[in-house]
Amino acid sequence: MACEGAPEVRIGRKPIQSYVLAILMNLVDQNAKRVVVKARGRNINKAVDAVEIVRNRFAKGSNIKVESCEIGSHEIEVTDPNSGQTRTRRVSSIEICISKE
Amino acid sequence: MACEGAPEVRIGRKPIQSYVLAILMNLVDQNAKRVVVKARGRNINKAVDAVEIVRNRFAKGSNIKVESCEIGSHEIEVTDPNSGQTRTRRVSSIEICISKE
Fold first, then answer.
1. Which residues touch B57 (CB under 8 Å, ≥6 apart)?
2. Chain A contact for B90, CB < 8 A?
3. pTM exceeds 0.90, yes or no
4. Is B48 on the interface with A (CB under 8 A)?
5. Of the ranges A44-48, A63-67, B16-20, which one carries the lowest mean pLDDT score?
6. Which DSSP state fits B25?
7. What ipTM was reported for this prediction?
8. Residues B19/B44, Cβ–Cβ less than 8 Å
9. Which residue of B has its CA nearest to A49?
10. Residue B51: CB partners within 8 Å, gap ≥ 6?
11. How many angstroms separate the CA of residue A76 from the nearest CA in chain B?
12. CB-based contact B44:B94 (threshold 8 Å)
């Protein structure tokens, strides 16, 4: 587990700006030393984008860096709406830990 | 740069099975110790998926693991097809290094 105990930003369906803001709020406003950005499936690239936007656009002067980046996968249960059958599906996930010096 | 000198698998528009096969070919057939999987933009989640499929489905017994995972971004030049103007765009990227013991 990357970045144990650090505040989490979970990437979902909202526009990317929401997550960029959430990361910045944690780092700047809440003065957190580290933030962990988590995403699953199709949101993985949005997570990478959000971290890169924070790093390139908003954090040029300060020392924000990617401390670690871990990938993994989870089994989730999906119910087929037509047949009503449940089956397990594998979903990839990413956890990016960013830190501020 | 992750996995200096290791054979590369670049994730593009092909179906994910092609890339899973390419990774396996390098590790098993070519007997490479390490492989680096690279992707940009929307293909980032496909890269994570491909690595996770290799790790979970085909490599249960053997010791294939993610050695490192790096994210970054590149500036690329895009030409607007209507106006003909070029502008720079930021594209996120990922490099996942997998190794076999």
1. none
2. yes
3. no
4. yes
5. A63-67
6. I
7. 0.85
8. no
9. B92
10. A71, B23, B37, B66, B96, B98
11. 15
12. yes
Rounded to a whole number of angstroms, the distance from the CA of A53 to the nearest CA of chain B is: 9
Give the pLDDT confidence of A55-84 residue by residue, as tens digits: 988 766 668 889 999 999 988 888 888 888
Cβ-Cβ contacts under 8 Å for A15 (sequence gap 6 or more) = none
Q: Output the CA–CA distances (angstroms, integers) from residue A3 to A32, A53, A67, in the order listed.
A: 12, 20, 8
Work out the angle at residue B51's Cα, subtended by the Cα atoms of residues A73 and A51, and round it to the nearest 5 degrees.
70
- Structure confidence at residue B64 (pLDDT): 87
Q: What is the DSSP letter of B30?
A: S
